[in-house]
């Protein structure tokens, strides 16, 4: 059967359809534009704006018809401006400064000082744009000044870090990678070069049993079968083992010149050590390895919510049991929680021993009374101490974290109880928070349990600006290669700095985004390497590419780029490339990580000052207290008067200097008013009853004032009510409104 001639147009039709933009992209652009306009409309209607709106409004005003007048007024008030951390500037922020001070003109009447290190531009996810810095660098050609001395690190460590980046940058045009250390070199032009710095040096030095340590240690593994989880666990265990070895050695510490001559030795403590990671998975891996060796640590970058913890679910069971102490199911569930920590023998005894069970029920009844009398915070703190949780948790690994969570939850519940009415409402609110139905906030973020005498685990981003004596980077070759499945669009910048959004997820956009990712990873590595004062430990291993032993992701990482220039290398050749990276620097040591055998426990005799004898305490204090706020105290008091008559009724004039005592008026008028108001409660007509009672109260109060003023000879029309009359007036007024 012959094919119809129209079929010849199928291929051109498909090509034309492929060239057309999908309808989805047009809808996304329309939605984004409409939503932005709607948000702007709502902000204008409600007269609200945020920090980003402040920048946008100022930029629009400077670019508007009256921009020159506004510029002159601002510059007249601020002729000189200094911008610190300029490498983290967004394009919009730099545009404002350029409009104000006209960077390229170099006007002598004004001054703009831009202070920053482009090698530390690591906040692209917050809007910082390295191209803003590069634009300012081009506009200020010939007006650059370098701060070329490092006052943080030892001379040996500075030399070691210089070597790592100089290997990729090259020296005097010789050697190095074609794109330079930070991948911005194009031929002879390099707007972001690496320039070695000098060191002011440190008087103190790190010493060990065999003398000084090398400033930087590269510990590598030639294994080619490491998956992501095994990669983290392998390097975390080796890192923790090295830390424990140093902490157990009494000869490891710092030597510094003493004031009277000679040297002074200070032993290494856990607080001298910081471990830099990229995310919570790496933090969890290294903390597990440290905990296994009895080394306490703290994660300084934890942003988890306390209501997502195990302690939150246990506290919810406690609240159910305390609110219903006679419900056996709820009580058993609360006592069997991991946080309560009752041994199995105790739980079994509660099942068989009626007296023991009644004792626990009575305990919960007392806690319920404490909740009602003093608040949920007092109740939970009392329960925590009755279970002896502080002593038990502080003696366990990770117990300080759990105890901090318990105290944090108790405070959150106390704060919420101020706005909720009753135990049931508080329990429902807390259950919704645990289920993720409530609103988040900074008050829910996990609190820092402690950082005293603990090994610090912190992300590289948060470590910027900080310094530590010893720094460990156990996952120095972690690479997060960009993938389509993790994105709905790609946002990237061209080499000229112009930003673009690609909804088609094209190959060109994917390559551009991944290039920018590696560029920022190099700057992130530079920040990590410059946090240490004395010593750096880097863990290096070839992470297999999706479980394949034939390829790895080493060349996709920042350290891998410095060593290989972005060329894939097998794991067996890793040591050779690291040796080239070291060059002739004697301050860099290379070690091969063997298969981990055994686990060294922390064995360290701490020197503590003798405890001070407690002062005798024989005073007494009020035990019948509660936690509250002004809002909760006044919640059930009288409300603002709704009618002028009510306001007149309860209005009090200025207090007389010496108010007279009136014996008859309160006893006759008030009792009569009280009797008549009470007798009205039997009336079936509610509105008539309230109106009648309100009228009688007003009549009684006016009669009392008249009698009091007549006896006192006062000329004022009103005098203040005595305490009993004010109390009765408020009582009757609340009843009238009910």
Structure description:
The chain is of the alpha/beta class and 738 residues long. It folds into 4 domains: 33-139, 3-Layer(aba) Sandwich (Rossmann fold); 198-256 and 263-302 and 451-592, Rossmann fold, CATH 3.40.50.300; 306-444, PCRA, domain 4, CATH 1.10.486; 638-737. Helices cover 46% and strands 12% of the residues. The protein is built from 26 helices and 18 strands. Strands 7, 10, 11, 12, 13, 16, 17 and 18 form an 8-stranded mixed beta sheet that branches. A 4-stranded antiparallel beta sheet has the order 6-5-8-9, with no helix packed on it. A hairpin with a 2-residue loop joins strand 5 (205-208) and strand 6. Helix 3 runs parallel beside helix 5 (91-101), helix 14 packs antiparallel against helix 16 and helix 25 (686-712) packs antiparallel against helix 26. It is globular and about 85 Å long. The model is unreliable at 640-690 and 712-722 (pLDDT under 50).
